[in-house]
Amino acid sequence: MSGSRSAPAATDDVVLVAGEASGDAHGAALARALGTLAPDVRLTGMGGAAMAAAGVRLLHRAERVAVVGGTEAVSRLPAIWRAFRGLRRLLRQARPGVLVLVDFPEFNLRLARAARRLDVPVVYFVAPQVWAWRRGRLRAMARDVSRVLAIFPFEVALYQEAGVPVEFVGHPVLDALPALGRVEARAGLAEPGERLVGLLPGSRDAELRHHLPVLLPAARALAVSEPGLRFALPVAATLDPRSVRAAVVTAGVPVAVLRGQAHRVMAAADLLLVASGTATLEAACYGTPMVVLYRLSGVSYRVARLLVRGIPGISLPNIVAGRPVVPELIQEQATPEHLARTALALLRDEAARAAQRAALLEVRARLGSGGAGLRAAAAVLRERDGHARR
Length: 390
Fold this sequence. Notes:
Blueprint: E1 14-18, H1 21-37, E2 43-47, H2 49-53, E3 57-61, H3 77-94, E4 98-102, H4 105-117, E5 122-125, H5 137-144, E6 147-150, H6 155-161, E7 166-168, H7 173-176, H8 182-186, E8 195-200, H9 205-225, E9 229-235, H10 241-251, E10 255-259, H11 262-268, E11 271-275, H12 278-286, E12 290-294, H13 298-307, H14 316-321, E13 328-330, H15 336-347, H16 350-366, H17 372-388
Parallel strand pairs: 1-2, 1-4, 2-3, 4-5, 5-6, 6-7, 8-9, 8-11, 9-10, 11-12, 12-13
Helix pairs in contact: 1-17, 3-4, 4-5, 9-10, 9-15, 11-12, 12-16
């Protein structure tokens, strides 16, 4: 029609946005699946090294915006704002076929609103945990999100009741875990007959600062009580292993510090002392007994206590099971002494470890089957193509 303005032609088929290490891994799996189903697809957005390796052209780096808790976010605000403005500008200028958001809700829900105003469809993969806290976000998601790709089966009914289009694709962790045999994984970490304890402090600097001062003294106490124990601490690729090695030397604990290799430690260990997060679900898939801990800054913890409601703990194995299956030590409970006592009780009780292993395998069964990345990619392409035909 004369005088009408048409939207600019799409220059990027899919904009993919993740803001943390776990989101980068999930985004990379999705990017690879998209490339398999649509080899000519063009991927642009924000993420980390894994997404870059999977073929995503990164305009902004996830490690510059990732934060833990509200107080830790202050120093990252300028970088966060630059990334948001840059991605909003990309949506406005390129009008991509679809925007795919991966976790990182504080940032991504705002970007979803910007996309809706530009008539860009929004698919949310690894959606906000509204079942745990801030259910008010459901209203915004019903308004701004075209489709949620649920990774937990219990999420489906929640989103359906809120009027958010949703489908269950399964949990991507099932595709990400390497198949590791226990004997193979333990080679070089523990001799036959020795028991191995894995220490997993988290993948972010703030988690390292909060958790190493608890984990290392707990390991020292365990080594005194059980002299034959071996310890391994895998350091995430997002962290500097030199600072971890220095902390281990200062603590005087016989801990093998490994670059990466978290999955190997999960498969090899007799017990894990692990920070709450995706690692707990990965460990559950290996059936490895664990004690979960988590510490935040005082202000962040008080805010979280006000917001989190109605779930059986904070760790994903307990949430998926719907009951406590692994011990959790949170904030003031997460002391070296309490952690060492809890871990020692599990190490000395084979029946308790066997019961936990059985419960963890039930958790794994609830996550669905492998192939979540391909199912998610197919849903993304359907959303893109359906919108284009309108």
